[in-house]
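Escalated from tier 1: 4'-deoxy-4'-aminopyridoxal-5'-phosphate holo job.
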Amino acid sequence: MKPEDEKGKIWFNGKYIDWWDAKIHLMSHVVHYGTSIFEGMRCYNTKKGSVIFRLNDHVKRFFDSAKIYRMDIPFTPDEIKKVCIDIVKVNGLKSAYIRPLVFRGYNTLGVDPTACPVEIAIGVLNWGAYLGEDAIKYGVDVRVSSWMRMHPNTHPALAKTGANYMNSQLIKLEAKIDNYAEGIALSSHGFVCEGSGENIFLVRNNEIFTPTIGSSILPGITRDSVFKIAREFGYEVKESVIPREMLYIADELFFTGTAAEVSPIRSVDKIVIGSGKRGPITEKIQRRFFDIVETGDDGDYGWLTFIE
Ligand code: PMP
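Tier 2 regenerated the structure:
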């Protein structure tokens, strides 16, 4: 958190409150068991004004995640969308990272959370490039994690829950200790899943591949955007089961995510990918993505919600 974030207001259970007043009790269910659902979206300061990228889709995923965990969000999707827009204005921001969070609060420490109230908050942060400015241009060095992503039917990967990020932390910490920017997790079957906070795409022989939605991945909204952008360039992204070694022999690799945006990968396990630089297809997709969020013109996609 930066000092400027801490001057801001947080929306908590229906009211805007000061940053430092946004507190919960230590004995809340979420603190002990990770009982939370969250979202992360960006507001970009485009040439046409500030826009939230794919607000409707993020709010949809928020409600989907909550449904999987039988958590009733005490506001409607339209109310949540309105707060996401308003909180950027309330905090006087032009660009921001918006973090809706719903969690089980204080009542019991039994595993059964039903007696614990469902509480909701939305906060905003100032946030730049996640993997660093250089990453966008030159790409990052990554490793295959020794940690797997969750086996299907354990922690559901399609739900964006706090607890899933314990697995992400193992992947990220291991990568960092060995000086890699990120780790790529495989599934319990040994196939490629995703980074700790990014989906992954692979280019080989002029075709684009990404793991299927059933590969223990988060259904990324940037991932979906890349499907559509790739189509503009005549590529139909193939969702497939991707063996680990396919990473090493790819012509191009890149991560996608709200935080990571579109970030090239230049090596995996010290094996150079393609030319070791951002590849031409990655660059085209990246350019188009940034063009949309810089100009504020997304053609007919309807991805941008203007703040004003
Ligand atoms: N996978 C994981 C594990 C993530 O945390 C994220 C970031 N939310 C993504 C993929 C990318 O999703 P999105 O493009 O919706 O940000």
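The longest strand covers residues 96-104.
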